[in-house]
Amino acid sequence: MPDQQELSQEAHDRLKTELDELTGEGRIEIARKIEAARMLGDLSENGDYHAAKDQQGKMEARIRHLQGILRDATIVEAGASGGTVGVGSVVEVRFGGDSETEHYLVGSIEERHATHQVVSPGSPLGSSLMGASAGDVRSYEVGGRSMKVEVVAVQ
User: Fold this and answer.
1) What would the mean pLDDT of 99-109 be, rounded to a whole number?
2) Beta strand 145-154 with 137-142: parallel, antiparallel or unpaired?
3) Spatial CB neighbours of 54, under 8 Å, sequence gap ≥ 6
4) What's the rounded mean pLDDT across residues 118-136?
5) From CA 69, how far away is CA 130, in angstroms rounded?
6) Contact 138, 128 (CB under 8 A)
7) Beta 5-7 vs 73-75: how paired, if at all?
């Protein structure tokens, strides 16, 4: 994981709420499930117990992941890039001369956006778009192939 995560305030708040829920009610609920499964008897063949322990492991991994993101997070303002692509920008692009355009939000995958796909600024496409302005054509490598993308608009 990179040393620093750039997040919008909205994403930071959402991740903090998720972390609080997991470390509070989430842990309590898993403990209840494990205790209830223990009461069923032999743990070596107890599917409920093993499922609850598996769920606990996944939840604890998510907690550690969220703690790392939030510990290293820097809050960025969307649209503060002055017409150039930066973290938090929504970019309209056209690939390789296609007539149709696509919209991407440049940022952490944790941003999750309802109407736009998210592209990491560290990905090949994302890094090629960083600093670009409307009208720029950028190249990037994917799987050994060179691709071109035209920036149509930056929001």
Assistant:
1) 88
2) antiparallel
3) none
4) 92
5) 21
6) yes
7) parallel
Q: Going by C-beta distance under 8 Å and a sequence separation of 6 or more, which residues neighbour residue 96?
A: 147, 148, 149
Percent of the chain with pLDDT over 70: 94
Fold of 5-75: Helix Hairpins (1.10.287)
Which tens digit of pLDDT belongs to each residue from 86-99?
A: 888 889 999 987 88
**Within 10 Å of residue 144's Cβ, how many Cβ atoms?**
5
Fold (topology level) of 90-154: Chitinase A; domain 3 (3.10.50)
Identify whether the C-beta of residue 128 lies closer than 8 Å to the C-beta of residue 106: no
Question: Confidence band (pLDDT; 50, 70, 90) for 81?
Answer: low
Report pTM. 0.69
Domain coordinates in residue numbering, the chain: 5-75, 90-154
